[in-house]
Design brief:
Elements (H helix, E strand, L loop, with lengths): L3 H15 L7 H15 L4 H4 L20
Helix pairs in contact: 1-2
Length: 68
């Protein structure tokens, strides 16, 4: 797979959307996506030696203003 990290990032995004776009679960979605992508890819030396540890980028909701 030419760009494993991009494939994992895209799958993690889809998992996040399907989960209702919750805050604070980026690493969970990243790990699930990584597992799915690596599990379904054809076992080859190039893929088998890759270890991806970078979590997906966190999506932050806009800052709320205090109404005091």
């Amino acid at each position: 797979m030419p760009n494993l990290e991009e494939a994992i990032r895209e799958r993690a995004y889809h998992l996040w959307v399907a989960d209702g776009q919750p805050d604070g679960k980026a690493e969970v979605h990243w790990m699930h996506a990584q597992y799915e992508i690596l599990e379904t890819s054809v076992a080859s030396p190039a893929v088998a030696d890759i270890v991806v540890t970078k979590p997906a980028r966190r999506v932050r909701s806009p800052k709320k203003q205090n109404s005091r």
